[in-house]
Amino acid sequence: MNIRKANERDGIDLVRLMRQLWPDAPEDELTLEVRLGIRSGKMHYFIAETDEAVGFCQLSFRHDYVPGTTSSPSAFLEGIYVVASVRQQDVATLLVEAASAYARSKGCDELASDTEVENDGSQRFHERIGFREVERTVHYVKKLSRE
């Protein structure tokens, strides 16, 4: 198992994995997001590979409010995914460790993340690797009329 920081050449593999995590996201939007994120240096991707890419995590640095953090910028785990065939082998943990080391090298003291309230597996994973829950929210939206 090799864990490394991804580059533009990994775009196809990243998008393939991202589509597994976010199946409703249009492929062309994910492709553009990866390309622009890597080129701009605003998104950082880490990839796990054996003979092929089997997992990824996406890291950003947030300068705005991040629940529970006390410093800025805060490293933020935007997404993490590992294919089913290599789950329960600490691949996700290794990806987060690589992202954490990178964040520390950039001066961050904290790594934040979020997950859906109903995603018990993700919550257990976060807690197992040292995250602590800091907040639960319910989001709302209201249509504004143009009259």
Q: What does this entry show, briefly?
A:
The chain has 147 residues and is of the alpha+beta class.
Written description of the protein model:
There is one protein chain. This protein has 147 residues and is an alpha+beta fold. Helix content is 33%, strand content 22%. The chain is built from four helices and five strands; from the N terminus they run βααβββαβα. Strands 1-2-3-4-5 form a five-stranded mixed sheet, with helices on both faces. Helix 1 packs across helix 2 (27-40). The longest helix has 15 residues, at 91-105. The protein is globular. The mean pLDDT is 95.
Major beta-sheet overview: 5 strands, mixed
**Overall helicity:** 25-40%
Q: pLDDT under 50 segments (min length 5)?
A: none
Number of separate strands:
5
- Strand % is 15-25%
Radius of gyration: 16 Å
Subunit structure: Homodimer.
InterPro entries: Acyl_CoA_acyltransferase, Aminoglycoside_N6-AcTrfrase, Bact_Acetyltransf, GNAT_dom
EC number: 2.3.1.82
Keywords: Acyltransferase, Antibiotic resistance, Transferase
Reconstruct the topology from this structure:
Elements: E1 2-5, H1 11-21, H2 27-40, E2 43-49, E3 53-62, E4 74-82, H3 91-105, E5 111-113, H4 120-128
Parallel strand pairs: 4-5
Antiparallel strand pairs: 1-2, 2-3, 3-4
Helix pairs in contact: 1-2
